[in-house]
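pipeline stage [seq->struct] | target=Type II secretion system protein GspF domain-containing protein | organism=Blastochloris viridis | residues=383
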Amino acid sequence: MASPVSMNSKDSSVPISKPSASFSASRFPLFGGGGVSIDPRDRERFFFFMAMMMKTGQTTSDALRAVARAFRAEKNEGVANAIAGLSQKVAQGKSLSQAMQTERRMFTDLHRAAVLAGEASNNMQKSFDILRILEDKAINSKRAGLAELLTPLLMLVLSLVSVFNTGLNTLPVMAKLREAQGKPMGLIPGGIMSTTQFCADYWYVFVGFVLIAGVVIWSLNSNPAGRTTLHSLQLKIPVYGRYLIYQTYTQMLLYFPYLIASGVKPKQLIPIMEGLATNSVIRRRIDQFNHVITTGGTLAEAMNRAGFPELIVTPVSVAENYAPTEGHVNDVLIEGMTHAHTLLERMLADTQKRFISMASGILWVLGGAVMMLDMLSIVLSQA
């Protein structure tokens, strides 16, 4: 039986390549891309099955065929056919990371970067294990965030519906009654009537603004300079920008320890980092990482130049400067990077909670304010 980390014999000879421009479209499936879409839970199961197949010593192409049969047995023909197509491409000599480019709606740059890491370290099982963990965390994170934001969002939507109904239907009747009694309409009820009537009469103006904004965002996103502008603005959003940075660096640090332990040189980490950095501004910081490594700098210096938080760089710096290297692998460095990942993951979780709390608070305040205006307008119209 082959070793647990065995790959297709042709896979292991494939050099690490940078993520291609065509694959970057996977970040924007609405504006392009091919292949079939896949439910996140099915994707998590795909990674689990692949890790299990790698553990049994199967080659990549054989593992893909086995997983395709498993999905076909569940009547999931679309995903099964896509995986079978990947198996054929791998059997023809392509690496799995290259074959995944055709399935842009199934796999993102993050998934391809993980497979690149597995090909670099000759340990595909570990890559699929990490991908399964990341997918599971993503599912749980979305579920938790949705649960906290759904209630205030629904409250805001229902409050807006209620205030429009009041402004268009209830208040005009009350205004006629007050006019018959010789009483003027109050400022708040009158303002709500005017605002809701304006929105109802000129709804197409708001739709036009939305369409124009969509076209502008799409056009900016279609060229490198515009995409850089959008991504730069993304990182400047309070709390959310920090969350994106921490999320990207956390994913990188998840791969670093086992890649270094597998003998991968820091220079070989760069294509994987670029694949994980979906934000073009962060990707430019990877160029600084590349420059430091190329000029003979340490891994800690490169991480610092790439924008990793100082708290995260310190364990790596200490391990590099003071820990002896036995053989060609610095075990203390690996432990330091693992600890750095734990710290950054904690910072990421705190930032995510802060962002969700802030967004939830804003929605609660807006929903409550609209509801109070609605109730106040009815009360004042009857005074």
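stage status: PASS
auto-comment: The two ends are 87 Å apart (CA to CA). The CA atoms of residues 270 and 290 lie 7 Å apart.
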